[in-house]
Amino acid sequence: MSERLDCGYVAERVHRFLDGELTETEADELRLHIHACDHCLDETDLIDALKRLVSRACACPQAPPTLRAKIVTEIHRVTFTRVEIREIG
Ligand SMILES: [Zn+2]
Question: How many whole angstroms separate alpha carbon 38 and alpha carbon 70?
C-alpha cells in the first residue's frame, strides 16, 4: 500500500505531518510510507529532531529570535538539500 505514495509526495507534506496539520487519512498514508521507506524515515527523523530543537529554543527565554529564525530556515532547507545536510551532519 505504501507504493501509492512516492518520496516526493511525502517530502512535500512531511512538515505539515509533523505539525499535525494533515487530515487523519493523509497522516495515515504518510505514516505507512515513512515506515516502509528508509529514505523517508531518515528524513522525517531529521526534521523531527530539528523541530524539537525549535521547540526548545522557543521555550527558552534566552534564545535570541535570530536563532529561532535560523533553525526554522534550516528545517525548510532540509527537504531540498538533504544531501548537503547529511554531509554536514
Ligand atoms: Zn520514501
Answer: 27
